Structures are given as structure tokens and as C-alpha cells.
Batch of 2 targets.
Target 1
Amino acid sequence: MNNFSFYNPTKIIFGKGEIAKLDTLIPKTAKILLIYGSGSIKKNGVYQQVIAALGKRKVTEFAGIEPNPFYETCLDAVKVIKQKKIDFLLPVGGGSVIDATKFIAAANFYEGKDCWEIMSKQSEIKEALPFGSVLTLPATGSEMNKGAVITKSDTKEKLAFHSDKVFPIFSILDPETTYSLPKRQVTNGIIDTFVHVMEQYCAYSVRNQISDRFAESILQTLVEEGSKVIKNPTDYDIKANLMWAATMALNGLIACGQPEDWATHMIGHELTAFYDLDHGVTLSIVLPGLLRVMKKDKLDKLAQMATRVFGINEGSRGERADKAILAIERFFRTVGAPTHLSDVNLDASCIEPIVERMEKRGWKLGEKGNITPAKVREILQNRL
Amino acid sequence: MNNFSFYNPTKIIFGKGEIAKLDTLIPKTAKILLIYGSGSIKKNGVYQQVIAALGKRKVTEFAGIEPNPFYETCLDAVKVIKQKKIDFLLPVGGGSVIDATKFIAAANFYEGKDCWEIMSKQSEIKEALPFGSVLTLPATGSEMNKGAVITKSDTKEKLAFHSDKVFPIFSILDPETTYSLPKRQVTNGIIDTFVHVMEQYCAYSVRNQISDRFAESILQTLVEEGSKVIKNPTDYDIKANLMWAATMALNGLIACGQPEDWATHMIGHELTAFYDLDHGVTLSIVLPGLLRVMKKDKLDKLAQMATRVFGINEGSRGERADKAILAIERFFRTVGAPTHLSDVNLDASCIEPIVERMEKRGWKLGEKGNITPAKVREILQNRL
């Protein structure tokens, strides 16, 4: 097992009816910026629950955070914060709304020339506005981690930053708020969660029993509940299991002591930045290709996963690894996710701009740093 | 799944050589009380590593914390803190040393008449001294939770308290510090961890996939690594897996959304208080009896555990439950733990004092509050 450190101070409040607890979680005197997306929270009643719980607190609203949140939109929010002397942020929505809030919280105090440096130069965050979240779309894990991904619309760059200063103080997770999610978002959430786990699990083995088995626990839960959820969108326990799975998939826990990959995400981010695909869609397309091209490096884990997650006991390690990749693709299709570039109307011409950018950045991805731009080409060619 | 909240701000630093990081974790100006037990840390080199890492900081030592830490000893430590104007506590040892530190940290500011009220009246803790720990004996999970168990020597009472104020700020877990542990302590640690998991897992099912599978992950790890550790006491990965398993077993994580039992611990505490048995020893004796007597209430979970943890796929639910209990007893004996009162030279006469005390306190234990004193008698009679 590798050495590691683990720290996660976010308080989770989980379950039906828990949005009412906002009243006990936010200071009575807080000047709140309520941050959300396209306004679906007004249709499903979440907005109304939040406003009721906040009572007489001063609330300013900032709507319109995009699904892949734009840097430029975040800067507008910072202006509102300064104007209205906001001292507490309350994102209500999915990972994009929470990610945007993290950037807004940090950008508000950023002293450098250009806030984009938080991503481009990974500048240190010295201070951030406090915030707590109400999650309505389980997928990114942003509700219980310190990372965020922001997109610059003019240069089509999608980059991440991390800081202990942007852990949510609390996050409220009520599975009932996810009943009204469109099928596409449910699918994206399942894929995102699945691939988060794979990035932290499917490298080489370091005899790390707890993190391996915790990861497998999440994968098994996704496979079992993911297959049922489309037909049972208002089954509380199915929704609760998927919601908690998504949080556990990216709160630092299953990374403890493990080598990590993250190449599928890095390639996926470029697909989103260039071709405006949903994040989840890019992942379900890229992952099977990456696993095939990098199979030799991931053989032990793929074979272990075949047995423990998919119940495949027959065959050599190599054969079980192949079967695991097929089982993953089959699962992705079961939940309605695309697995090839042609499924989203992209052809071979989409590949070179991505490879070129990676060459320019000098990126070598993966747990061993051996996923070169040439390998990325191979991976994407596998997905035509 | 039940509603729940989860909060755990302790920072974990895990791995070989990590004790040196104390220097970055404790303020340079801290006046430290170094708290430990019988002095084994001086024989295995841990003490020397700690002192080297602390450098020029002011350190006062307080040795002699008992395996089941005494209230009276803790009060002596509080006197030293006041005398020496200590502002940071550093327990180095196992769960008893960390438990004692939690009580000392809280008792130092307690304003009531008698600090024992922290346990007996569950008085609110308003303030506690900050502390970080160096763990050398994986078992209790105290290094990453907010609970402690303290014993009053004159009245033979062993009681617990919990407070957000007594989370360790950090805990350093170096598996190499556990190489020199005597076999008895390794066994006790495995049993304690196993039973912690069972208390949070083996009640009735609430369709809680993540917590169920995380619990099973820990049980599987204990069964696999526990069987190997006695013959391989200096295998780093075995020791690392057991150490991380113990922390994960009682840091709040696997309790999320679950009904909890804790009757085995409550009965075990009385066996320790009256007959001075090791905590782990009381648990390996009591658990199989409790599972037999309460089998009907725990049928689903026992059958599920039979399949998922012990690979028992044959038979009805009832038969698999019986086989799971037998497999647990067999595992306990494999790691050298006693499973009957006669193994520790106790006979039927040990039972009534415990039943009487529970009657006096009006305790009804277990996840359904149906483990009456009469059931406790039945459980202990099963273990003669």
C-alpha cells in the first residue's frame, strides 16, 4: 500500500426532508448568494424548500451556471458578491453549480492579475468564502471534495483546481430531489461515478485491500442499482444508494494508498471543450478504449474486477480482463450511455485537435505517465 | 436507507516513516503533554522517532495510562496540564491512550462538580484541548472518531462519552510501529475491529448497499489478512491493511444510514469491569452467543454475510445464518481468540452480577431495544 494522507471536513446531512436543516446550518445573520443553474430547482420544489428553510435571512440569487460552468459567468457572480457584500454562498444543484461556487469562493479573494491563474498556474488559494451546498444531481462528488473544473469559453480550455479552502462546510443530500431528473442526467451521473471509481481503482495492484474493496463496493452498487433506476425513478432506496455512491466515489476515500490514473477524464475534458459533449458521455466513450489500449498495465485489476464486480470466474487473467471490459461496455449501454464516437456523430477528424493540444502541453497521462499523445490517438481511434 | 449525518474532520497521515511529519503538524511554540502507556514505545523505537520529530518543542511526559484507562489516572494528567500550562496533547499508543487523552482534553475545561459527570450524565463538552495522535495498536478506531471509554476503578464502571470537540486534529498511522506488538494484542485488535463492524452491520436490512458492502469489505479484509498476520508479523501490507481496516471500522463511515446494535460491546464492558478481561476477549466470547440468541432479528444480514464474506452459497437463509455464526467462531479461534467463558476460567457465577446491574440500570440493548437483562443472561449462558 502506498503512503497517503486523508482529510475531509465536509459535514454530510443525508435523507428525505433534510433541506429544512439549512436553518440550523447557516448563521442567522448570513448574507447569502443562492447560486443555481437553469432553474429546474424551481420546477421540482427544491427552490421552495430552500427559501422556506432560510426564513428571514438576506438572500440574493445568481442563476444561469452552465452544465460545464464558464469562467466568465463565475466572474459575474464575484461582481454581485462585492456589490451586495455577500458572506455565505449556497449552491443548489449538481456538480457544475458546486464547482462554479468553489471557483467563485476562491476568486473573490484572489489577489493576482487574472483569476484564471487559479487553474492555469495552479496558484495557491489563501482564502475563500464559506459555503454549504444542496445537491440535486449525484455525479461529480463535488459536494464532498475540494476540487472543481471550470471552462474558459473563448479558448475552449477546461481545467481543474484543488484547495483545502474550498471544501463545502456542509452538503445536504436528499434523494427525493433527484426523482425528477431527466434520464440523460441520471445516466451521466452513473457513468461519472463509475469512471471516478475506475480512475482510482484500475491501475496496478499495491495489495490495498480496503481501498480495492471499497471501490468494488461502489462499482457493484452502480451495476445493481443503475440497471434498475431507469424503470424506477422514484424508488427511494435505489436513488439513495446511487446518491451516496456518487459522493463516496470522489471524496478522497477510495484513493487512499492507491496509484491513480485520471487519463479518461483528461481526454474526456478535451472532448467536451472541443465538441461540447456532456462530461458523462465523453467518459463512457473513452474508458473502454483506454482499458483496451492500456490492458497490459491494468491486467491484475481488470481480472480482479471481472471476478469481484461481474462474477466472472472462468478463464485466464487476460481473458477475464477482456470480459471485464466487455461487461463494462454492456453496462454502459444498459443505462443508455454511448460507447463510441459515432454514437454522438463524431468521426476520425475529431481526434487530431485533441492529440495536438496534448502534444503542445507535453502531457503524459495515466498512473505510470505512459499515456502519450500517440496513445491518446490510439485510444480514440478504438472508439470510432 | 435511514437518514443520517456524517462529519469527521480528523486528518490521517498513513504510512512508513510518517512520524517525522509531526514537525509540520504541531505548532513550533506548543507546550506538549506526551501521553503514553506502559512504555513499550521506548522499546520499539516509536518514542525516539516522536522525540526526534518534535525537535526543540517543550515536552512534558505522562506515562502509565492503563489498558482500560482509569478515570483517576486521567485526573492526575489534568493536574500536570494545569501545573505546566500545557496547550497540546500528543497521545502515542493504542486506543486506551487516545481514549484517555480525549477525556483529559475535555476534563481540563470541565466546569461541573465532578468530571465523571461527562460519562455518568453525558454532560455537554464545551471546550477541549487540541490533540493529535500517533497510533501504534490498530483496534479501537479512536484515532479517527469522537468517542472514548473510561473506567472508574472504585465503582467498576466502564462508560463512554462522545463529542465533536474531541476528534483528533490528526492521527499518524505507521504500520511498521505495529510489527513488535505481542500476538495477544494483534488478536484483540482484529476481534475489536471485527465486532465494531458487526455492531453497525448486523442488524436488520434497510437496503443500504454502500454501508453494507463497505462493512463486508472490512470483514473480508480481516478474515483474509487476520489469518496470515500471526505467521507474518512484519509483512508491511498485511499490517497496513489491518491498520486501515481498524480505522475504517469505527470512524462513522459504515454507520451511515444503518440501524446499529452495540449490545456485544455493552455486555463486554461489564465483563471487563467485573472480571478485568481484555476488551477484545469479552467481544469474541459474547458475539457468537448474541448472534445465536438474536438470530431471528438478524437473519437477513447473517445470511447475506454468509454468502458475501464467507462464500457460503448453499442452504436456506436460516441455514446460511447458522453457518455464518459457525464461520465467525472458527475465524475467532484461527486468530487465537477465546470464544467461551470457560476459556478464560469463568463459570456460571459470573453472569448474575452483570444481569443485576443491567436490571438496575433498566437497560434494553440492541438495534430494536429488545435485548433485555433476561436475554443477556441467555446470551452469557450460551457461552459457558
Note: The longest helix of chain A spans residues 209-229.
Target 2
Amino acid sequence: METKEISQAVVGRLPRYLRYLGELRDEGVERISSQELSERMQVTASQIRQDFNNFGGFGQQGYGYNVEYLYEEISKILGLDRKHDFVIIGAGNLGRALGNYLNFERRGFIFKGIFDIDPQLVGEKVRGVEVMPIEELENFLEQNPIDIAVLTIPKTSAVDTVDILVKKGIRAIWNFAHVDLNVPEGILVENVHLSDSLMKLSYNLSRRMKEQTKG
Amino acid sequence: METKEISQAVVGRLPRYLRYLGELRDEGVERISSQELSERMQVTASQIRQDFNNFGGFGQQGYGYNVEYLYEEISKILGLDRKHDFVIIGAGNLGRALGNYLNFERRGFIFKGIFDIDPQLVGEKVRGVEVMPIEELENFLEQNPIDIAVLTIPKTSAVDTVDILVKKGIRAIWNFAHVDLNVPEGILVENVHLSDSLMKLSYNLSRRMKEQTKG
């Protein structure tokens, strides 16, 4: 069942399932029907069944899914049973926020290094890890097998940095720079464009204001 | 044309159009065909035309769209021609990062206040704005008309804070807390679940590793 290509829309919904299942587990719930999960998550039960069928359905029997089993299975599908080492490029507030985020470590994402172009930030510590000068990035990547690079730098520097990352064989980039990165096929990029998200909010807000003015 | 309900998928793509149009404008490009825009953005020209048709098509004539006009029109649609005042709840690294982000101000999002539960953070300054104790939030919202509250606090405190925000008539919440907020209809919520995004990356990374092991 693992060989089938799963759509990114389905993949994008898995972390939310995992979050709800984690809450259910913490509440001591052992089994849950797709109907109950549907009400809790405010998605249709048929959507849930369809999503889960991509992975063989997770053996729903009689009165529902086994919460613990489902939680573990989805964790594995998401690759959370493996360790992923990451570095952060950019030790500004956002970079430091991500370095300090303990939940990542619980999920197997291990914070290995942080780099900045600003000499004043070099040597500062983020959760015990010293900020290194960006000039050392290349050498660091040669010495340490890193899976994921997190980019929290302005878009102008992002382009140059990506060249180094690609050259040194990084596999995945979590990109917070406000630019679409141009990477060779085979390198994964997941974008978090914060401004885009804020603009979506602004669109809906403005639209509502206009409706109220009309009404 | 403004009365039609536009799908959130289309709305979600508008900021990216705006970004590319801004770059084109900065490069001095005056007109662009949907074909050229398509190549640059790596989406199909028919997708672009379909998206734009939701807003009347933006008068493409002969050899393409007027870049400046299109940029201004999409800005207006996104509500970026209005000012939106916002407060940040949570003065940790992420809250401070968002408070310091100057691009938001250029887009009309005005940073008006920041609050934290930690007395040690109170009085610190984020871009000239003093961190206030969370107890003052209610009073502050009574005195100041705020459109958007940005939540950069843990999920346990998020729920209580949302009650205050709702009571004081906030219209929109930009939520970074790792929980789906329960708000009355009419209040807009835009979620940024950073862990979910990282897990999507992890899924694709693990999948690729498995494929390589097989090959």
C-alpha cells in the first residue's frame, strides 16, 4: 500500500488527524468511529474514510478506529518515527523562535546548528546551540549529515544560500523567505509565506466590511 | 463583479500573483501576457486566466496585462488599500518576529500592541511598542479599535484569550497556536500551524528515502 502516490492534499491533512488523535489519546479515548471523529474535526466522515483508504483504511472494524494504533500509523506515514537533523539559516527572531520550539524535537526534528551573516549574533546561544557565521555553513554541512535546512533570511540572501545547500547535498528546505526558490528536481521545498497568509485574512476581512457597509 | 463568492483556493493564490507582479514592476516590465506570467510562475496560463476571470479578467487586451494596473487591482481585492490595526498576544520569539516584520506595515497592517503573561517581558520594547501585561488586553481593546489579533501563545492559553477577543469584538484572528480555535460564526480565523508544514516536509522526505532504499 505504500507504493501508491498520495496526493499532497491528503498528506497536508494528516498532521491535523495526528493532532486530534493525540488529544483523544491524552483524554484516554481508546476507540473512535469516523462519525465521532468527523464531528470533532468538523470534516465529513466520508472525507475521513477516503483519506484513510489511501493507506489501507487502518482497519476500522465494528465500532471504529483504535486511537493509539491510528496515531502510531499516521506518525510512521509522516516519517515521525525517524530522526531528521536540521539547521537554521538566519538567527533573527523567527530563526530563534524555531530553534527554541521544543515540540519539533519531540517529533524527531533535531536542531543541529544555526547560522547568521551578522557578526553581532555569532556566539549567541539558541537552546544551547551557538550561532555560527554563515561562512562556516559549507564546512559544517560537509562534516554533519543534515536533512533539512530552515531558511529564515531575506529573499535576497536566500538565493545565494540555496546554491550552497544544493551543492552540499541538502535534501529538504523549509523556506520562510518570501520568494519561490529555484532548486534542482529532487530537493524538497516546503514554503511558509507568512505574508500570503495574512493577506488571505485581509481579503476576507475587507470583503466582510464591504458586505456590512452594503447591508 | 465583487458580489460573486470567490473560492478560498483562488484567494489563496492572489498573494503569489501580487508578489510576482511586484517583482515585474520593480524590473520595469509594463505589460505581460498570461503565457509569460505562466512560465515565470510555473502555473498554466489557463489557470491564470480562470483565476483572473473571477474578478472580471483585468482587461487583458492584445499583448497582455498592464502590470501596474493588475498589481493595484489585486492589492485592492486583497484589502491592502485599507489599514488594519493588529495586536500580538505572546511576546516570545515568534511574537517579536512578527512585530518586527516591517513588510506588514508596508501592506497596511499596523502593529498597535503586544501582550504577554510573563512579567519579565512586560516593558520590553518590540519596534518601539512596549510589551503590556495580558491583564490589560481587555481594557486596551475597549480603548483601541483593533481588527486583527495575532496569537503566538501555547494552545492552553489560546482558548482563554480567544474568549476575551470575542467578547471585545475582534473581527479576525491570525492563529499560530497549535489548536483549532472555536469561535462564533462571523469571526475570521487564519491558521498557521508550523508543525503541520514541517510534517508535510518530513512525509515527503521519508517517502523519498524509502524509494531510494528500494532502488
Note: Chain B touches chain A through 59 residues (CB under 8 Å).
